[in-house]
Structure formats: C-alpha cells, structure tokens
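User: Run a structure prediction on this.
Assistant: Running it now.
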Amino acid sequence: MFWGGADGLRSEHHNGREEVHVNNGITQREESMTTIMAFRLASVVTAINVLVSSGFSIAAIIRPQVLVPPEPVRTRASLLLAMYAAAPRIPLALFVLGAIYKQATPALLILGAVAGVMQLLDAGIGLFQRDLRKWAGPLLFAVLQFFVVYSASHIRADHAVNQARINETLSSFGLP
C-alpha cells in the first residue's frame, strides 16, 4: 500500500490489482495554478516582445534617425522599407493582445512562436550590420520567447494528460 505521493495519488492493492485514488482537489488546484502562471508569464513576455518590436517599427517611420545613423537622408524608399517592417508587427501585436484578453492559450502560443521567429530574424539583420545593440536585444527576446512558449506548451500538455487521467480514474468509480 502506498499513501499520498507528491503527485496527490494514493495507490492500494486489492486481490492482486492496483487501484489508484486521486486527491482531485489538490492536484487540480496545483495544476491550475501552474497553468495560470505559465499563461501569465507567456502573456507578459509575448506582450513586451511585440510591443517593443512594434514600437521600433513605428519609430523607424516617424523618426528614422533614432534607429539609423543621421547621415542618410530620409528618402521615400527608406520610409517604404520602414512601413514594410511595421506592417506585420502592428497586427501581430494586436492579435497577441487579443489572445491575452481572451485568455486563448493556443493562439498565444502560436503567436508567441511567430514573434520569436521575427525577433530571431531581426537578430540576423543586426548581426549582418555588425551592430551589437541590434542583434543582442532581439536574440535575447527570441530565446526568452521560445523558452516561455516551450514551457507553457509542455505545462499545458502535461495538464491535459493529468486531467484525462483524473477523469478516467473518477469515471472508473462511477463519479462524473
């Protein structure tokens, strides 16, 4: 007989078969808190990521001298390139904020992965320019973004597996 493991399960052996009892309240509460914390962390990191990225893109349109050396004259071509840079970032930021507001975890994870890829590409551009400030920041954001997306997706998957196991155990005892 095994009582009260760290995972909230209790195992008993009766007539050669094992029965598993789930301390449903504690297990679900702990998993819910872990899932909530993972969603909050993913929300904060992703929101900061897309808002900073959008902010730099908008700054490139309004005041390009903030991002590029002041020598180049602002041309119609540089304005168009800045607008092309901002075009995908602004809707991404709006979709991320919408996913956070709606607490749509799958959408947030997908959008977070997209934001991480965009930051990784920005880091590549900064590396191409050989400018430490333009590749280190985006690379840090990309790594952090991929970490929270990976963590949140695994916690969500683990929670779903554990919830299915709990439901199966409860149904075997005739409980809803």
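The longest strand covers residues 9-14.
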